[in-house]
Write a structure and sequence with these properties.
By secondary structure, the protein is mostly helical. It is built from ten helices and no strands.
């Protein structure tokens, strides 16, 4: 009976910590969202009521594929760290990254509807802001283990849960259902697999195991947010949506 009572108490403590982390994440991400709207040209273009700039949208989808390809490496490095840091988190993370490895297919499928082949995507260099972000994440992992990669996942999954469906609705209205089959599937997949709650749970476990405060995670999340502001600024200034091959 004592063991069961202690187990229940530990569960309550863990649930309370996770609730606090979820509220913390909402606060940090909402503040970054306000800064994004203030600083980035056409910040809400993918979700607002304006007519969709098709070149902007297509180039964004190309970069989405590149981010999936490029983050596969840091996800794998993070898994190696996590096996040592917290094996239970590694179990969850391995399922998450296995899912992410296939998500490029969803967006590549939609790009074909725009006449963009996988060879054209590969011939289109990723933006410098994307490369810089991945370089920073990998460097931070040298001292912080898996946490920087998890911070990236937290940033993208939080935003995906709140804005991806709106982007799909706008793209559908301006294009067609056929142009968003993959994007729509991606939205539903993330929700059904509960990716954001999974990442929040992994974040809470790693912070606890490493003895780190949310200050460390906040610094990582805000750095990633700055890279995304730089990315969307680059995207807005870009004159072409694809490479010529």
């Amino acid at each position: 009976m004592e063991k069961t009572a202690n187990s229940n108490l530990e569960t309550l403590v863990e649930d309370n910590d996770l609730l606090k982390l979820t509220k913390w994440a909402d606060s940090v991400m909402e503040s970054e969202g306000r800064r994004y709207l203030e600083e980035v040209p056409r910040a809400s273009h993918l979700t607002d009521d304006s007519s969709l700039d098709i070149d902007y949208y297509v180039r964004h989808r190309i970069e989405t594929v590149w981010r999936i390809w490029l983050t596969a490496k840091i996800d794998a490095i993070a898994l190696a760290h996590m096996v040592v840091e917290d094996y239970e988190s590694a179990r969850q993370w391995s399922r998450y990254v296995a899912d992410e490895l296939d998500h490029d297919k969803m967006f590549l499928r939609d790009l074909v509807e725009h006449g963009v082949s996988i060879d054209e995507v590969r011939a289109t260099p990723p933006f410098q802001s994307t490369l810089s972000m991945l370089q920073d994440i990998e460097q931070n992992m040298n001292s912080l283990g898996a946490l920087p990669a998890v911070a990236y996942a937290l940033f993208v999954e939080w935003n995906a849960e709140r804005f991806s469906e709106k982007a799909v609705v706008k793209a559908t209205a301006n294009l067609s259902n056929q142009h968003v089959v993959g994007a729509k599937r991606h939205v539903m997949f993330d929700l059904e697999e509960r990716h954001l709650p999974m990442i929040l749970d992994i974040s809470q476990r790693l912070l606890s195991k490493r003895g780190e405060s949310t200050d460390t995670l906040e610094r990582l999340v805000r750095s990633i947010a700055a890279h995304f502001r730089a990315y969307f600024t680059e995207l807005d200034a870009d004159d072409s949506c694809r490479a010529v091959v």
